[in-house]
Amino acid sequence: MTALSLYGKVAIVTGASSGIGRETARLFAAEGAKLVLGARRRALLDELVGEIEEKGGEAAALDGDVADEAYAQALAEIAVSRFGGLDIAVNNAGALGPMGATAEVSRESWDATLAVNLTGAFLAAKHQIPAMLARGAGSLIFVSTFVGHTAAMPQVAAYAASKAGVIGLVKTLAVEYGPQGIRANALLPGGTDTPMADEMITTDEMRAFVRGMHALKRIAEPEEQARAALFLASDASSFVTGSAMLVDGGVSINKT
To answer: Which of 18, 54, 40, 80 has its CA nearest to residue 226?
Structure first.
């Protein structure tokens, strides 16, 4: 086994029905992890479970809303009851939220975005950490973004603020639970070819502009972000905690 192997590990992956979450689940299963998959769309979760099981892996799924504390608790409980514990969590589920001038954003849409992106991350950690403590170690991964951290974009205030808040949560978790063997890190993707990106990039001209923002002059495939999540989940990153790890194709530093 390599340092990237997840053999014998149990992982939760939220937002697993598509995009980065789906590719992360597939990769983790290929590396030997047993999976608890979460998302809103049950049919897509069942399809993914079937795919993993056909390849000899093990997975369970539960559909629900990450902003619901009972759902966060249930995912952790499935990991323990079905697979014996919890070692890894990739808290990837997120919402783009309202797009428009900040002064025109409604309180309701602001609250709804923070409920998923920030409160959902808190609730996940609240229920995942006890299960990890029972194992003596764990790796918490939260998918954030460079938006609002290394670069700003107009008309996405709720998204940027909520995802920046996740980075603050990660840093607190890292120092709070590091002495007990739990690592916490944020993964900050750049432009990635996902359904959420399609909500923001609606024309060929916009897609070309976004590609040009990156030093690599392209956007990522979801599996490239999944490989970064695998690094953070695995023993290969055993001394990495409290980080906001950019996997952004150089969008944060590019000026050309």
So the answer is: 18
Count of the separate structural domains present in the chain: 1
Q: Answer whether residue 2 is part of any domain.
A: no
**pLDDT, tens digit (0-9, with 9 covering 90-100), for 82-113:** 999 999 999 999 999 999 999 999 999 999 99
Domain that holds residue 76: 10-247
Cβ-in-10-Å burial (0-12, 13-18, 19+) of 143 comes to buried
Task: Note if 159 is an active site residue.
Answer: yes
Is 147:167 a contact under the CB 8 Å cutoff?
no
User: Which CATH number characterizes residue 27's domain?
Assistant: 3.40.50.720
Residue 60 CA to residue 195 CA, distance in Å, equals: 23
Mean pLDDT, range 32-52, rounded to an integer? 98
* Amino acid at site 105: V
Determine the Cα–Cα distance for residues 256 and 253; give it in Å rounded to an integer: 9
Q: In this predicted model, what pLDDT tens digit does every residue of 112-168 receive, in sequence order?
A: 999 999 999 999 999 999 999 999 999 999 999 999 999 988 999 999 999 999 999
131's tokens? 């299960």
Of these residues, 7, 71, 159, 177, which one is catalytic?
Answer: 159
20 close to 230: Cβ distance less than 8 angstroms: no
